[in-house]
């Protein structure tokens, strides 16, 4: 049975009569409003509207002040990073293992702490981190061979504060061959290729970096949430 339609006719000067509430048949279901995806979308819209209202309430002066605080935090972190790099004589004091070539010593996601000795060469068995020509990602492998510059090539009476030239060969603990194929035309590494040597590590802590590199959108989303949180912080 079809529901009765109500038509309201108003006269000038008289308010319209109330329209009786429309009653749905018993078999009708409002599936639109029970859809969890729609409900989640509505909640996100409401949260966004609340954030906009908070921004309007705080005012532009507060937002600028919080932005300045955020910039100060970033600058302080960069200064600490550069200071640590100078102290440890390495351009990157901390790196993350990206492959399994050094298993079982290091696993993917391990966080490594580096330094580069100023007054000595690396010894066989130590683990350097190095770059090769046109290499985009640093490599961490074990040093397996050292070849020093022949004494006959050094001029008699010549003195230098620099360490003598040394050619180095590396290999991953989990690899069957040495790294010559990875050197992009070089037969050996020299000190100029080194970033540092491993002094210690923390297991799996760097896996967050790998996830953010694999999913750039997640990285930008986290940075956006962090920035928005700092901007809207009231204290």
From TrEMBL:
Species of origin: Puccinia striiformis
Protein name (record): Signal peptidase complex catalytic subunit SEC11
Record membrane topology: Single-pass type II membrane protein
Signal peptide coordinates: none
A GO cellular-component term linked to this record: signal peptidase complex
Subunit structure: Component of the signal peptidase complex (SPC) composed of a catalytic subunit SEC11 and three accessory subunits SPC1, SPC2 and SPC3. The complex induces a local thinning of the ER membrane which is used to measure the length of the signal peptide (SP) h-region of protein substrates. This ensures the selectivity of the complex towards h-regions shorter than 18-20 amino acids. SPC associates with the translocon complex.
Sequence similarity: Belongs to the peptidase S26B family.
Class in the EC hierarchy, top level: hydrolase
Annotated catalysed reactions: Cleavage of hydrophobic, N-terminal signal or leader sequences from secreted and periplasmic proteins
InterPro entries: LexA/Signal_pep-like_sf, Peptidase_S26, Peptidase_S26B
E.C. no: 3.4.21.89
């Amino acid at each position: 049975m079809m529901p009765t339609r109500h038509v309201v006719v108003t006269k000038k000067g008289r308010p319209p009569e109330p329209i009786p509430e429309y009653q749905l048949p018993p078999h009708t279901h409002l599936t639109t409003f029970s859809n969890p995806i729609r409900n989640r979308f509505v909640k996100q819209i409401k949260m966004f509207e609340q954030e906009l209202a908070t921004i309007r309430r705080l005012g532009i002066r507060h937002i600028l002040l919080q932005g300045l605080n955020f910039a100060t935090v970033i600058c302080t972190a960069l200064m600490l990073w550069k200071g640590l790099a100078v102290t440890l004589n390495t351009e990157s004091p901390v790196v993350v293992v990206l492959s399994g070539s050094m298993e079982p010593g290091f696993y993917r996601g391990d966080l490594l702490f580096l330094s580069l000795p100023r007054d000595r060469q690396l010894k066989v068995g130590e683990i350097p981190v190095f770059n090769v020509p046109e290499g985009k990602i640093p490599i961490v492998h074990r040093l397996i061979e050292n070849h020093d510059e022949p004494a006959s090539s050094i001029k008699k009476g010549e003195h230098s504060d620099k360490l003598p030239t040394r050619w180095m060969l590396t290999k991953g603990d989990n690899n069957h061959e040495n790294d010559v194929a990875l050197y992009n035309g070089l037969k050996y590494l020299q000190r100029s290729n080194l970033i540092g040597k491993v002094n210690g590590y923390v297991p799996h802590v760097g896996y967050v970096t790998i996830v953010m590199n694999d999913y750039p959108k997640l990285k930008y989303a986290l940075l956006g949430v962090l920035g928005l949180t700092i901007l809207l912080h009231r204290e």
